[in-house]
Every structure is written in C-alpha cells, then in structure tokens.
Amino acid sequence: MKNKMIILLAVLSLTACKSTYDVNREAALAAKPITNAVVQDIIDNTTPINIEEDQFQGEQEYVDQALYSAARQIIDLQMEPRYLSLEVTLTPEMYNGDYNGFSIALDSQWLLEKGAIDKPLEDFAILSTNNLYNSHTSDDIYYSKYNRQILRGMAVAAIDTPISDLYAQTRGMRGGKNPLTEKQRKLTWLDFMGFTDDVEKNVYLMSSLITQHNRYGRSVGFSHHKARPKFDPVQNARKSYADTKRAATFIKADAEQARKMIGNKYYFVFVPGAAFEIKTTGQKIVIAQTKYTTFTDENFQPIRLNGGKIKPSYSWTGRNYEEDFTAEHTKAFIKADTGDEPF
Predict the structure, then answer these.
(1) pLDDT at position 162, please?
(2) How many CB atoms lie under 10 A from the CB of residue 161?
(3) What average pLDDT does this structure show over 27-46?
(4) Region 46-54: what's the mean pLDDT?
(5) Range with the largest mean pLDDT of 111-125, 195-209, 303-317, 318-332
(6) What does DSSP say about strands 219-220 and 265-278: parallel, antiparallel, or unpaired?
(7) What span, in angstroms and rounded, lies between the C-alpha atoms of 18 and 310?
(8) How far from 37 is each of 118, 124, 202, CA to CA, in Å?
C-alpha cells in the first residue's frame, strides 16, 4: 500500500500546477466507455460485500460485517480511482425554454425517459450522489463517515432471496412470511425493505436512498418513486455539487442554437463511487460521485465543470491502509451516522 500511496502522491504533484480544464480533459480522454463488462470488472476487482453468516455471530455483528465490506468497496474505488464515460444525445425533452438551455442529469433512468441513451436498465443503471461519504468535508479517508442507508442498500442487494411483497405488506401481522434469516432481516431495518424481481422498482428503491438536503437539515425526498417528488435536473444544474445529491449540468442555448444542437453527442465523464449487483435480478448499479464529474462535447472537451477538478486527491492518515481500515474502525462511523445528515 505504501508504494501505491507514493505513486498517487507523485501523480498529484505532477498535476498540481495544471488547470482544472487540463486535468478534466486528460481524465476525459483516459475514461473508458461504461459497459456491462466494465461494471462487472469493477465488482470483481474490489472488496466483495460480505453477507456470509456465522452461527456464533450476533445480529448486530453481522450487520457491521456487511456494512463494513460495502464501505470497504467504496474505499477501494477512492484509493484507485477509475474514469468512466457515458455517451448522451441531446433531445428536445431536455431543453427548458424558461432557462434557455439544456439541463442534463447523470441518472440513467432519467436519461432513458428523455431518449438521451438507449442502454436497457436490465444491464446496469447509473445514479449519482455526493452522499456516499455522509458529512465528509475533507479528502482524508481516515475521517470519513459513510451513508448508512446507501451501505445498507448495497448489502441487501447481495442477498439472492427476494423480499416478498407479501411480507412487506403484512409485516408484523399473522400470515406474513419472511424469506430471510434473522441476521439478514436486520439489514433491512428502518425504511428499507430490499430488492424485488422488478428491475424498474429496484432502481426506484436505490434512487430513494439518495436524498437532497437544505441548509436547515431537513431531508427532501429525491427520486422517481411515485411517493416522492419527480426529479427535476433544472433546479440542480444551477447549483454546486455541495447543494445537490445529483450530478447535473446546464448548457445555455437560445432556441435557434438549441435546434442545431438536437441530436449531437456529449459525454458525462465521472469517477464511480460504488458498483454492485442486485443478486435477485443480475442487474448492476453504479453510483457516480457528483463531485468528480465533468461534461464534455464529442471531442471530450469539458463544457461544464462540476465541483472543480475531476481528479480525486484522497489520502489516508493511518499507518497502513490494509491494516487500519477494519470493521472496528468503520463501526463507530456507521452507528453514529443516521444517513440523513447534510453532506
């Protein structure tokens, strides 16, 4: 790990004097187009979510184990970042005449609805958030706090037994059948009931774990779910990454310019923060980090910068990354974090 850290610091020293545009341009040119195979490679080569049970474990110890392994996968992707790109096409549905411009969000379901991409959700879905590190205000991984609800969603996704609608509807009543073990059931506590065999519902469910917050700390529902407000990228494209839980960009264009831009290709370039598979369906979900995202034209020239340089500058103040990042180290942060604190 020491060698990896030396290499990381060397790279950072070389790029320290480069402009934000140059750094983002280099990242865009190095980015791999996101595919099912690329997502699978990330899943295969990062720490797997551990939901194996030991009969001598208590329920809480099991939950800590599962959430720790989910957090560890996130850390793996921060210490050795990858750059991915998603091709999108501008469509009339993305134009807002009141603002005179296109609003585009890094949310595959929203992009599918707007006709901007044609990748089927059965392969993978992309969501974006700045809340993987809940209340994390520095780039020092050692002090990170993790969004417990997102970790819980990732952990439950690793369970291959679907949580039946019958159990969800009759929870606490006679006749309700829980197909999970007692330890697995503990993972689905609070308002999270887990994934089903319905691909579209799964994306709604994971999306609902990513919330938007205002300065007063009140949580605002932020997803496509019928019970929550519709996602409006216009409101988020005009904010900084710290003010929204979605990566969104805005391209200013009057009506005449917009007509000429319809059908043109652009790219979202981003650093994945997490990638996992929903075992009940085989569908994969990638969560991109809002802070480390840029939007480019078809020649990978950055158009809009979200949060500055896309190149992460993570560090680890512990003695040894492999030894210091343990379940005990993570446990306190998970228990202290309710998943609904401001970024």
Answers:
(1) 60
(2) 12
(3) 95
(4) 92
(5) 111-125
(6) unpaired
(7) 12
(8) 17, 10, 20
Distance from C-alpha of 176 to C-alpha of 167, rounded to nearest angstrom? 5
Rounded Cα distance between 3 and 7, Å, is 6
Query: Are 260 and 136 a contacting pair, CB within 8 Å?
Result: no
Instruction: List C-alpha distances in Å: 42 to 34, 84, 149, 169, 180.
Output: 11, 11, 22, 35, 28
Residue 30 tokens read as 């190095």
Owner of token pair 């060397």: 10
Q: What pLDDT shows up at residue 14? A: 42
Place of tokens 């939901």: 51
Distance CA 140, CA 16 (A): 17
Q: What are phi and psi of 83, to 5 degrees?
A: -115, 125
Question: What is the Cα–Cα distance from 87 to 232, expressed in whole angstroms?
Answer: 20
Cα angle vertex 134, ends 231, 212, to 5°? 20
> What span, in angstroms and rounded, lies between the C-alpha atoms of 76 and 47?
7
| pLDDT at residue 119 greater than cutoff 80 | no
Q: Which residues of the chain form beta strands (DSSP E)?
A: 32-33, 84-89, 95-96, 101-105, 124-129, 212-213, 219-220, 248-252, 265-278, 283-296, 302-306
Question: Rounded to an integer, what distance in angstroms lies between the CA atom of residue 259 and that of residue 81?
Answer: 37
Q: What is the pLDDT of residue 83?
A: 96
Q: How far apart are CA 156 and CA 138, in angstroms?
A: 28
DSSP three-state, residue 248: strand
HSE, side-chain direction, 13 A CA sphere, residue 202: 29
Alpha-carbon distances of 273 from 42, 261, 278, 341, rounded to whole Å: 11, 31, 17, 19
C-alpha closest to that of 118 among 93, 83, 95, 87: 87
Share above pLDDT 90 across residues of the chain, in percent, rounded to a whole number: 27
58 CB burial (10 A radius; 0-12, 13-18, 19+): exposed
Count other Cβ atoms within 10 Å, centred on residue 44. Answer: 9
